[in-house]
Amino acid sequence: MPIVNLRWCADPSLVFLLVDFFIEHTSVAYISHGEVLDGRAEGPSVWSADLRAVLVEEFSACSFTGEPLSESGVWIAVAEDDTGLLAFAVVEFSARVRSPSARLHDLVVHRSRRNSGVGNKLLDWIEASVSKGGGRWMVLESGLSNHAAHTFFERRGYEPTSCVMMKRLTPKVPR
Fold it and tell me: pLDDT for 44-90, tens place per residue?
């Protein structure tokens, strides 16, 4: 098996590759309330028609320079081998809070590489980076029907800590 290289993405020109990778390797099961609130999805089971544009804007706003996790910000971690991109993760580090922590916004693994250890390897590397940077917690959210992700994270020691509920509201029309 080829050697997997793990690194923080320092090349903003890769944004479009990452966006296309996200779209190709996720399904509606991936959608959580965060995707709805961020405009990635229209609801719990429908991606936004503007998904590509939303992701380009989000990923372009990430930091592509500096030492990740030495300050608050959002970075993209990538796992690659000689065949190309295998997985990536979007990680937000919050240093200026009482309990420094990181939020895993996304962890997307190429469909053909799931259950190969790539996701574990990338998450191990991210967790070590967060810990080294002073982080005490890693948090994430996952779509309610994303059972494979739930199993993956629970096997790694992640535990449910809250329940998020949402309701679509009908805007009031002024009379």
Answer: 999 999 999 999 999 999 999 766 777 789 999 999 999 999 999 99
Q: What domains appear along the chain, each with residue ranges and CATH number?
A: 5-155 (3.40.630.30)
Amino acid at 21: F
Q: Let me know: does 29 contact 143? Beta carbons within 8 Å.
A: yes
User: Which strand (E) or helix (H) includes residue 84?
Assistant: strand 84-94
Give Cβ neighbours of residue 35 (< 8 Å, ≥ 6 apart). 41, 47, 143
Question: Please, what sign has the CA dihedral across residues 12, 16, 22, 24?
Answer: negative
In contact, 95 and 51? CB cutoff 8 Å:
no
Task: State whether residue 29 is helix, strand or coil.
Answer: helix
**Distances from the Cα of 89 to the Cαs of 107, 136, 168, 173, in angstroms?**
4, 19, 29, 41
Closest to 153 (Cα-Cα) out of 162, 165, 141: 141
**Distance between CA atoms of 69 and 56, rounded to whole angstroms?**
22
Within 8 A by CB and 6+ apart from 91, the residues are 68, 69, 74, 75, 76, 77, 102, 103, 104, 105, 126, 130
What is the pTM (predicted TM-score) of this model? 0.92
Sign of CA dihedral 131, 15, 105, 122: negative
